[in-house]
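Researcher: I've got a protein sequence and the SMILES for zinc ion. Could you write out the 3D structure of the bound complex as structure tokens? I'd like something to compare against our soaking experiments later this week.
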Amino acid sequence: MSFWKIGEKRHYPNKPIKCQFCDGDMVLRWSKIFAHCDYLHEVMRRKDAGQSVEEVVEALDNLPTAYSYANDMEYKCKDCGAVQIFGVAISHEQFKKFRDANGGSYMFIDLEEWNEDEKIAQQLKDLGYFGG
Ligand SMILES: [Zn+2]
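Model: Sure. Here is the predicted complex with zinc ion in place.
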């Protein structure tokens, strides 16, 4: 079994992620899809050449698969604050699926998951981030 399973908007671990320092529970802080530098250079090259946003998006959707993509996710320990970033390689097709599922955003935070955790919700409330 793979460590990760593919969800609609990102990957999910098949088992709880434990902190390597204190064995505490780690939770997702952010997830994004990432295209390696060549992809961004291609965007800039096409924009500099005067292509519209629509033209650039269409062209990038049809790029050869020589470009590489990943779903990067940062997890944070609820107890000691250690962070761990996972970079799960994905195909160009998966890159497009995640991009479309996230409304065109390349980065998102699962606030709902944070608020479901009593300890984190209280920490955030105490800091004035949520609720009141
Ligand atoms: Zn820890």
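Model: Residues 4-126 form one domain. The longest strand covers residues 26-35.
Researcher: Great, I'll pass this along to the crystallography team.
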